[in-house]
Structures are given as structure tokens and as C-alpha cells.
Write the C-alpha cells for this entry.
Amino acid sequence: MIQETAGLFEQAIIAPPSDRRLSQRLLSVWAQAARGSYPSWADMRAIDLGADWNWVFVVDLKQSVGFPYFSYLGSELAKLSAVYLQGQTDWTLSLLDMATATIDAAVACAGPNHHERELTLCDGRKVLFRCMTAPLADDGETISHVVGCASGKLAEEKAPRLRIV
């Protein structure tokens, strides 16, 4: 199981490999589509985000009872649902679960919410993980959905510094 998860993680690598500005670009699309009110998912999709859409999700709040109901789940981000984290009592949390954990914060603050932390995979490796969520509204006023994205990279282990004596 650990080998399978590690292999999947190596392939997905959690973000467009050379780019760590995914959340900034999604936030820019959100602001461009907003025009003074909450944007709808249709408004956002009308703006070209290219391959970044593969790292985006949209959750329908009305249909989310106990678990997020995805209206949209990018193909690369979907792979993260099989990358599990190490936990003291619960080993069932995935990176995708961590990305959707900030949905309520975006609704509560009625605006974009950024979250960044270091996570530990089930095989012990560390991941520097970032996600951004922002509210959407079909009517421009009442929050009905949340859009989000996730990115990150494997944390590099720092070698001990050598000291000349």
C-alpha cells in the first residue's frame, strides 16, 4: 500500500511541477469573473485557465451533506484522493480532504481563503501544501458553491550545516 501510494504521489507531484502560483491565477480568474458580486462557476469557466483547471475543484454546498459534493474535480487533483496522510488516529485523510477542509472558511469570511501547512504522507515524507478556496454564487449574491485549488511540493530534507573549525 505504501509503495502504491508513493508511486502515485511521484506521478501526481501535487502541482504543475514548475509552478507554485496556481492559487494566485485562480484568484485572479475569480476576481475577474466577480465584477462586484460573487462569480458563478459558469462565469469562471468562460475565462481560460488552461491546464490549471486540472488542479481545481468546485463543491456544491447544498448537496454536500457530511462530505463535499464535487460539481467539478480536475483530473490531476482527483489523483490526490488516493494519496493518504499519516495520522495519530485516522489514516484515512487524503490530500484532497485537506484541500476541501477550508471550504467552510471561505463561506464564513465570504471571500477567498488561503491555507498553507506542512503535511506528512503515510510513508513519512513531508509535503509543503497550499490551497485556496473562494465562494461562488449562481445568482451573484447567495453563496451556493466553493471553488478551490491545491498545490504543493515535497519538502526537501535539509542537510546539517557544516561548520569549519
User: Anything to note?
Assistant: Residues 2-154 form a domain with the Beta-Lactamase fold (CATH 3.30.450). The beta strands are 56-60, 70-73, 113-120, 126-136, 145-154. The first strand starts at residue 56 and ends at 60.
